[in-house]
Design a protein that fits this description.
Largest sheet: 3 strands, antiparallel
Number of helices: 8
Strand order of the largest sheet: 3-2-5
CATH class of one domain: Alpha Beta
Order of helices and strands: HHEEEEEEEHHHHEHHEE
Structural class: alpha+beta
Oligomer: single chain
CATH topology of one domain: Tetrahydropterin Synthase, Chain A
CATH architecture of one domain: 2-Layer Sandwich
Length: about 325
């Protein structure tokens, strides 16, 4: 706007100077030259009028500020913060007012940093966090930090320090074991930043954690040793189980053998008693038990047949 004003002033001054010179060159006593002087005056007025119209349009155009709904404008009058303007059509004084826009949308930042764990293990981590500004804090941001860019620079540095605090609480192995809860702990630390900075955090995520090659090799060796120990323990338990099963089988077989021996002994005792008390009856029972159902054989000699068969009558 200042440049336009200077250009219009130069045009008006130049036109006024040229028309003045031409007017002085005309003789007022000469009727034709007198008419020329009148025309020069008209031209001078037209130049001034055009400059005035262009100047007015320039003021109007430069005074109009159209702001997106996702932004807020901080108006400074002669460099002093005065008020804010919201989304839509706004008009400011182009000569005295300047407008600084601040984005109210959610800002996404990702910070990668190096730190140390509680047991002095170096670690490199990456944290992604999202935050947003409040329109009501725009003037405070402009007053305290001068611009949003300066605020963001200080916020990034503070966020990294808060994340390092969480990593320094734990040893390297503990970090690996509790990785799923780290994002929540870092978010709690970031919430403390809301007391220091006029922002609101909406999300915090630990995206990556890298340890040194030596530590990762040690972790891999430890995991392999634990797996081998677990495998050996499982094999030991399996061997114990097999031994117990074999022992149980042997015990059952021994008990079965004892019972079989007892049965045989009892059977022999019964046989002995039967032979002692009822020999014929016992023999007859054995015969019947062994008989296959065929008729008895005859022995022939001199024409007479003799059938061999035990006496099945019960003689007492």
């Amino acid at each position: 706007m200042i440049a336009l004003t200077i250009i219009l002033v130069i045009i008006a001054v130049a036109g006024f100077a040229v028309t003045t010179a031409l007017r002085k060159a005309c003789d007022p006593s000469n009727r034709y030259e007198n008419q020329a002087r009148k025309k020069i005056a008209i031209v001078r007025g037209a130049i001034l009028g055009v400059c005035a119209v262009v100047f007015g349009l320039g003021v109007l155009i430069n005074g109009i500020k159209i702001i997106d709904q996702t932004e807020v404008g901080v108006v400074k009058v002669f460099g002093k913060i005065d008020h804010t303007i919201s989304g839509g059509l706004n008009f400011v004084n182009p000569f005295t007012d300047t407008v600084e826009l601040m984005d109210l949308r959610v800002h996404v930042k990702e910070s990668s940093f190096a730190s140390y764990t509680k047991d002095a293990q170096p670690v490199t981590a990456s944290v992604e966090y999202q935050y947003e500004l409040s329109a009501g804090d725009a003037m405070a941001i402009a007053t305290q930090y001068g611009s949003y860019e300066i605020l963001e620079t200080k916020l990034v540095a503070a966020a990294e320090e808060r994340a390092k605090i969480v990593f320094s609480r734990y040893g390297a192995m503990t970090l690996l074991e509790t990785r799923s809860t780290l994002s929540a702990q870092v978010w709690e630390e970031f919430n403390e930043l809301e007391k220091l900075f006029p922002v609101h955090f909406t999300s915090v995520v630990i995206k990556d954690i890298d340890f040194s090659d030596a530590f990762e090799a040690a972790v891999e060796a430890k995991m392999e040793a634990e797996q081998n120990a677990l495998r050996a323990e499982n094999e030991k338990q399996e061997a114990i189980t097999r031994a117990e099963q074999a022992k149980e089988v042997a015990r059952i077989q021994a008990e079965a053998a004892v019972e079989a021996a007892k049965g045989e002994a009892e059977a022999l005792a019964i046989t002995r008693d039967a032979l002692a008390n009822m020999p014929d009856t016992y023999i007859q029972s054995l015969y019947l038990e062994k008989w296959n159902g065929e008729l008895p054989q005859f022995i022939t000699g001199d024409g007479t047949g003799v059938m061999i068969t035990p006496d099945l009558t019960n003689k007492e």
